[in-house]
């Protein structure tokens, strides 16, 4: 297989009900009734890419949380979007902690990855 260089554009977008995961402070009205949400929704997320992407093969992007042990009711949602690609779209599956990206053609690909913390009370 031929090596493929991809430029990955990471996007941190709004989580459930408008609370941002990352550097922005969550509004005080967005606590969902759980005092841990504020702390867990503001943690460092590290995204580890393969050294070299390969066309036609599964390439894994690893998502690491600063606080990976989440209490009951919390889960991580990963969404991947193709923002730019050459002739064909890559096959992608957004999973935590391992997201799969399989480019089908050579060229420049720009991929957006959204990592969201979701809390669902019982």
Would you kindly provide a written description of the structure presented here, covering whatever features stand out?
With 122 residues, the chain is mostly beta strands. It has a single domain, classed as Immunoglobulin-like. Helix content is 4%, strand content 39%. The protein is built from 1 helix and 9 strands. The protein has one helix spanning 36-40; strands spanning 3-4, 7-10, 45-48, 53-54, 59-65, 74-84, 91-93, 98-102, 110-119. Strands 3-5-8-7 form a 4-stranded antiparallel beta sheet, with no helix packed on it. The longest helix has 5 residues, at 36-40. It is elongated. The N and C termini lie far apart (48 Å). Mean pLDDT is 77; it is low at 1-29. Residues 1-25 form the signal peptide. Keywords: Signal.
């Amino acid at each position: 297989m031929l090596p493929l260089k991809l430029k990955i554009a990471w996007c941190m977008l709004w989580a459930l009900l408008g609370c941002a995961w990352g550097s922005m402070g969550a509004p005080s009205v967005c606590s969902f009734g759980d005092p841990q949400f504020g702390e867990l929704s503001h943690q460092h997320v590290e995204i580890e890419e393969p050294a070299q992407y390969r066309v036609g093969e599964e390439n894994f992007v690893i998502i690491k949380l600063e606080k990976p042990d989440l209490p009951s009711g919390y889960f991580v949602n990963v969404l991947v979007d193709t923002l730019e690609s050459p002739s064909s779209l890559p096959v992608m599956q957004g999973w935590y902690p391992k997201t799969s990206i399989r480019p089908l053609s050579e060229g420049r690909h720009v991929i957006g990855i959204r990592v969201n913390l979701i809390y669902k009370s019982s």
